[in-house]
Amino acid sequence: MPRNRQHYDREAEHWVGGVFKAFTTEQMAGDLREEGLPLNFIDVHVLACGGGYAGALSPWVERFCTKLSRTHVFVEVTGYQGFVHISSGSIRVEDRNERGARSFYSLEEKAVVYRSGYAEMTAGRGRSSFARPINTRDRSHHNM
Predict the structure, then answer these.
(1) Which of the listed residues 3, 71, 82, 130 has the most CB atoms within 10 Å of its CB?
(2) Phi and psi at residue 110, to the nearest 5°
(3) What is the predicted pLDDT for the residue at 96?
(4) Do residues 95 and 82 lie in contact, with contact meaning Cβ atoms separated by under 8 Å?
(5) DSSP 3-state of 84
C-alpha cells in the first residue's frame, strides 16, 4: 500500500499516494462500526485541524461523539483546538491569536474531550468532567 505524504516541487504542494477525504460525523462513526470497533472501546483521538473548535455548529468531535455513542456507550472522543502539525519528530498544535501571531502547543495543552451520556454519568467515579481540556498524559490510551 502506498504511503500518503505531501511533497513540494518548485514550492508547489502535491499530494502523493492517496487522496484527501472528508467525512461527516455519521460517515466516520459508521466506518468505525463497520471496521469492527469494539463496543467497549473508550478513547478515540481525532487528529483533524480545528476538530475541537465550535463555529456555526458545535465542534466536529462533539458531534462525532454523539453519533458514535449510539452504539459505543463508554466512548470518549478527544479533539484539538488548532491546526494539527505532524512531523517525523513530533505532533503539535498551532494556534493563532487575534493579531495572527502563531504559537505551538503540545496535544495535551489543546485537547478537548467529549464523552457519551453514559460515560458522563460515571464522571463521579474518577473520570474528568464533560468537554474540558484534560491532562491526557495521566491516562492510558488506545489511539485511533
Answers:
(1) 82
(2) -115, 15
(3) 85
(4) yes
(5) strand
Q: How far is CA 79 from CA 13, 48, 51, 58, 136, in A?
A: 26, 7, 5, 12, 12
Specify the residue for cell string 491532562.
135
Which alpha helices (H) appear in the chain, and where do they start and end? 25-34, 60-68, 117-121
HSE-up of 84 (CA within 13 Å, CB side)?
18
The Cα–Cα gap between 18 and 22 comes to: 13
What angle, rounded to 10 degrees, do the helices at 25-34 and 60-68 form? Answer: 40
Instruction: Please report the DSSP string for 72-108 in residue order.
Output: -TT-EEEEESSEEEE-SS-EEEEEE-TT--EEEE-TG
Predicted local distance difference test score (pLDDT) of residue 118: 64
pLDDT value at residue 116:
84
Query: Backbone phi, then psi, for 68, in 5-degree steps?
Result: -70, -30
Place of cell 455548529: 57
For each successive 10 residues of the chain (144 residues), what is the average pLDDT? 48 58 90 94 89 85 94 92 88 89 92 79 43 41 40
